[in-house]
Amino acid sequence: MTPKQVRKSLIALVVILVLTVGGMLRSVTLENPATGGETMGTGYSVKITGKVKQKALEQIYEQIQARLTEINRQMSTWDPDSEISRFNHSRSLDGFQCSEEFAQVVRRALELSEKSGGAFDPTLQPLLNLWGFGSEGHDRNVPDEEAIRIVKETTGADKLSIDASSRLLKTEPEISLALGAIAKGYGVDEVGKILAQAGLENWFIEIGGEVLASGVNPDGVPWRIGIQYPTTNPMSSKLQGIVSVKGGAIATSGNYRNYMEEDGVIYSHILDPRTGRAVKSHTASVTVSAPNCMDADALATALFVMGPEEGISWVESLDEVETMFLIRDETGKIAERFSSGFEQATGYSSAL
């Protein structure tokens, strides 16, 4: 064989090796892959059941990260350059042009505010700041009644509207938004769309405790989600119970993680928009089952504000929505209260 023929043979061999290795890399599959990270000031996780080609998985992960980054850019009050921050700092009554995604969340927030009789209100940012729970608040403290009255005048979902071209219109210059009780759920739903569009049927998504699940877990059964026992101990992993979800969302709001204590009294970060004050009740947490996570997220907050009597009565009028209240009595004992279909819809079982 001549030197020229040897070179041609070597080149051909290298090409074959490159094509073979490249093909192998493209065809590599991962079984039951999972990923996670940080977003919206909390953590997120995504789990998939089954085998997924690595190259397709990389594209899915890139899409998820890009989508969550964009949602954060639009709706995080902790980002001074976000859409929501720019709207909040604008005193103009002429209208604020926002993205369609942002507009979609605000529209739903306003709808739920009306349906809940004001128990849910996306315009609480001034009050959250006053109490020290907001992104622009200072030290946490219990404000006096006069301060609450003055700031409360700059809130109210009835002072905000959104037109067909996605312009936010306020009738009060100081109106500003806080979407922390609905944006995480929206983010979960958006990640779910990415997985569904990729042809995946069995998956689990969680952002800051808000969950959307589809299909089954790697054991071939519906995804099992623990409902945390309400305790102020951040190291506790104790569960109150477990729900099973094959398709739908679970969200929980509670007063045992984000709160302040003054003169021996615990004040929750969840404010009652109707009074401007932190919710003080025997409700320790509220868990909601709903078809989508954006609604579940917002409804959990609204129901916490309402309390079990008003809240469960309202849930009974809603389609495909169920709830569980955890009530703490004077001795600290926790009792469970359910809407009529919660146990059947979620397969709830107590872990205690």
TrEMBL record:
Cofactor requirement: Mg(2+)
EC number, as in UniProt: 2.7.1.180
Keyword annotations of the record: FAD, Flavoprotein, Magnesium, Metal-binding, Transferase
Gene3D superfamilies from the UniProt entry: ApbE-like domains
Highest taxon in the source lineage: Bacteria
InterPro entries assigned to the protein according to its UniProt record, in alphabetical order: ApbE (IPR024932), ApbE-like_sf (IPR003374)
Molecular function in Gene Ontology: transferase activity
Catalytic activities: L-threonyl-[protein] + FAD = FMN-L-threonyl-[protein] + AMP + H(+)
Record PANTHER family: FAD:PROTEIN FMN TRANSFERASE, THIAMINE BIOSYNTHESIS LIPOPROTEIN APBE
Recorded family membership: Belongs to the ApbE family.
Protein name: FAD:protein FMN transferase
